[in-house]
Amino acid sequence: MLRVLSRRVLKVCSAQVVTGTELILPSVKSKLNGIVVKHNGAHITTTAVAGSADDSILKWAPLLIPVATLGLGTWQVQRRKLKVQLFKELKERSRSDPLPLPLDQLELKELEYRRVRVRGRFDHSQELYIMPRSRVDPDKEKQEAGRLMSSTETGANVVTAFNCSDLGVRIPVNRGFVPRTRIRPETRSKGQITEEVELIGVVRLTETRKPFMPENDVKNNCWHYRDL
Fold it and tell me: Transmembrane residues, as ranges (predicted)?
């Protein structure tokens, strides 16, 4: 079909045809690709100037790498800005003056990471253990920074029921980290406070199970995430 169309174009065109020329008529446009035709006793050869679609894709493909890299870098910068702003807000919340613990659940949801004040007694017969957990020691982490191996101590966070005497409700209180050798209550009798105390703590809400995280073992009182 291309050969026939090319002859029609050359037959009605009296201009000289040069290599790489694109012949255009009001109703006909054709790119001649290496076609040899005879016109007025002379042989005319034309060569196409446009490559195939595949060649065009291959030609522009290397440019996709820097464009994608630029887009990824921009996204990382924006993501870092959001994280820095989030850390700033959390720090301000955790350092604010303590508030009385509200009973309204809707109001409580707005107080996550805010400090609150409660008064009451611990019920040490109602303990649960979130494990495994590691001891958070910023000074030790600075000393071991850059080492191939660290001496991180593992254990559990002890969560104890707390009866609020001024509110008449029971809340779980995360009392902090204990090593594995002291998870059993009888190994830490000094920490089993029985008198009424006033606590200042940070509000934390329940959390959802992360992918690949084990299910909570309620039967053995071993918890991997807060499911309150």
Answer: none
